[in-house]
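The protein record passed on below.

***
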Amino acid sequence: NQQGKWSKVSVLMTMAEGDVLLAKDPEGSETCTAEVPTVKDIEQLLNTGLSSCNHTDEVWPNLFLGDLVTAHNRFGLWKMGITHVLNAAHGTMFCQGGQDFYGTTIDYYGIPAYDLPDFDISQYFFSAAEFIHKALNTPGAKILVHCAVGISRSASLVLAYLMINHHLPLIKAIKAVKEHRWISPNRGFLKQLRNLDIQLRQTRGC
């Protein structure tokens, strides 16, 4: 089915290094051994598969990951059926979009993140996930998550959403997105996503 098409990712991935933890299946049907990968392992995974991307790609049902070219094209968004926009580069030089720009037809959420390894994007993981989750639970809604290029800041927030709301370990979240779009979060963001992975596993009793 359609959901299966989008969420089909491998359950286990062998890592040379990392912290071994027990991870339960989201539905509780089985228990498997998963590993929290090192940042180096994650970077190696990101360097596999797709090596380019479009302005926008649908990386999860009704969830589009894209760049500022798409975000600034209001007519294009209307044709795509976009009802929600999460801008991970709000207020920066090239991403000036806001609620006034989109009007009443689109629900907007702006996050003033910078694509720098020392920027704390983790402070927005849960609020962004909540906005995406509410959007995708609105009948007929489609959401665009974007930054300048659509591969680092916005990609990190989409990965966090999949980890928080769909209980995907970081590796599975990356593989799910990479089936449809090349992404490249900076090393600092990868470290923060790895910490989120550990935090979520501990919270869920893994």
In short: The longest strand covers residues 19-24.
